[in-house]
Amino acid sequence: MPELPEVETVRRGLQPVLEGARIDAIVLKRPDLRFPLPERLPERLAGRRVHALSRRAKYLLAELDDGWTLAMHLGMSGSFRIEAGHVDAGESEQTPGVFHQARGKDPAHDHVTFEVTSVDAIARRIVFNDPRRFGYMLMIETAALGEHPGFRTLGIEPTGNALSGEALAPRLAGRAAPLKAVLLDQTIIAGLGNIYVCEALWRARLSPRRSAGTLVLRDGSASARLEALALHIRETIADAIAAGGSSLRDHRQADGTLGYFQHRFAVYDREGDPCPRVECAGVVRRIVQSGRSTFLCPRCQR
């Protein structure tokens, strides 16, 4: 499943085309994806203008001019493809995002097409392609977005200064669960996934098996190691976004190019390789936690 940096690269690829655009028409090839598509979606979106395109966790949020927001989730294999609306528009096809497996372009999996006129007055088509049909779309009142079941329990975004040791301390205090499991809890940090937890823990020299509560001091404040972990999480996500995502199996950027952060992985999917730290003689290992692969250097991660 695409992780937060991949979704952010999709947002950045779509933003110049979709933000400020008028939605002229919606073409649906089927009534559902993972869930049924919102009722009367073509009628509700036709003529609407997109005020802003943002992201919350792994959701793309298109805020409309009528007080509603279209929330879109890529699921396992979803992607957006940007096509010029006219053959003489002089634009090549683009697939926003960066995925590890090439995203599908089989027209049989083109389920939703947005026909838009962008702020540059060029007509374009934005096509949602999803071979596994695990993605979904929701219509939510913008003012009530934070209270929607899919959003009200989401934790801190890992892309800004809100994520700090101080903010994490009360969420980790007293937790005996493994650190990796707690960091993957979306009610604590929103959108943080398996790859980037492994990478951030390596950067912070922390074992994924360590009890999360051990990073909180007796008075409930954050330890220096927790402060460092928060910083490393933010830096890992920022580096991945800057590199265009991880190109994990299915992910491509808005312009169709692959991301390159996977070439910088320190431990993820590098079982048996030497630890990248020059001063460390350890070897990267793979363990299984809650049915998921975890990669670490047992020598320098404590």
Quick synopsis:
With about 300 residues, this protein is of the alpha+beta class. The protein has helices at about 5-20, 40-45, 165-170, 180-185, 195-205, 225-240; strands at about 20-30, 50-55, 60-65, 70-75, 80-85, 95-100, 110-115, 125-130, 135-140, 250-255, 285-290, 290-295.
The shape, in one word, is elongated
At the third CATH level, what is the topology name of the largest domain? Answer: N-terminal domain of MutM-like DNA repair proteins
What is the correct CATH architecture of the largest domain? Alpha-Beta Barrel
Please summarize the sheet with the most strands.
4 strands, antiparallel
Instruction: Kindly report the oligomeric state of this protein.
Output: single chain
What's the SSE blueprint?
Blueprint lengths: L3 H15 L3 E7 L12 H5 L4 E7 L2 E6 L3 E6 L5 E6 L12 E2 L11 E8 L5 E7 L6 E6 L23 H8 L6 H5 L10 H10 L20 H19 L9 E2 L31 E5 L2 E5 L6
Antiparallel strand pairs: 1-7, 2-3, 3-4, 4-9, 5-8, 6-10, 7-8, 11-12
Helix pairs in contact: 1-6, 3-6, 5-6
Description:
- The chain has 302 residues and is of the alpha+beta class.
- It folds into two domains: 4-147, Alpha-Beta Barrel (N-terminal domain of MutM-like DNA repair proteins); 165-264, Helicase, Ruva Protein, domain 3 (Orthogonal Bundle).
- The protein is 21% helix and 22% strand.
- The protein contains six helices and twelve strands.
- It has helices at residues 4-18, 41-45, 165-172, 179-183, 194-203, 224-242, and strands at residues 22-28, 50-56, 59-64, 68-73, 79-84, 97-98, 110-117, 123-129, 136-141, 252-253, 285-289, 292-296.
- It has a four-stranded antiparallel β-sheet.
- β11 (285-289) and β12 (292-296) form a beta hairpin.
- α1 packs across α6, α3 crosses α6 (224-242) and α5 packs across α6.
- It is elongated and about 60 Å long.
